[in-house]
Amino acid sequence: MLKIENLHAGVEGNEILKGINLEIKPGEVHAIMGPNGSGKSTLSSVIAGKEDYEVTQGTIVFEGEDLMDLDAAERAHKGIFLSFQYPIEIPGITVTNFIKTSINETRKAQGLEEMRAGEMLKLIREKAEMLQIKKDFLSRSLNEGFSGGEKKRNEIFQMMMLNPKLAVLDETDSGLDIDALRIVADGVNKFRSQNNAVLVITHYQRLLDHIVPDYVHVLSDGRILKSGDKNLALELEEKGYDWVTSI
Q1: Which residues lie across from 217 on neighbouring strands?
Q2: For the whole prediction, is pTM greater than 0.85?
Q3: pLDDT tens digits for 29-39?
């Protein structure tokens, strides 16, 4: 589904990613872990096509198509979803209207008609119930006045509504208490299937108690130093990142 080869990228001449190689197949959940400043959020942003970052070398291929000439909106329409570490507030645009617009813009880009109102409403209710989202939440301005947990829950709600092929979750566990963490993780687990893939970016092993990854990768100083199964996350929790960087 996603194949990254020898990816180098940075900002204003400052190289952050220094040769990333990563392949994610349908049905897989991969976790990227690493210390602050290792390049985790940069990797997620580059995959999604954020224009702040410059790719100087390497390739990103998604479902057989080179993404380098596609902007963020085009990549989203292809089925790549990015959950932001710090979701932005959009006053005056309700959660429901944002979702409706996002879905119909994607359908338009794919040559499909807009989703019927009844079908949209049914889908919204179904996904909101899964995430224990109350009706009044859906009529609030997007992320305005939301707690950290509400913002992250809303991101997962958007993901479930848009049903992307690849979901990139950038520190979704940041700022969540244990109850919110379980609800968000449950949403991700209900989303995952053999037809999609998930890339989870996190500092902490606790999220991976709830979203069990197929593969764990340790990123440090712009490079993947070690890869393994879910047990690697447990080793990192016990030994810290210095254990990997000193190997």
Answers
A1: 32, 227
A2: yes
A3: 999 998 888 89
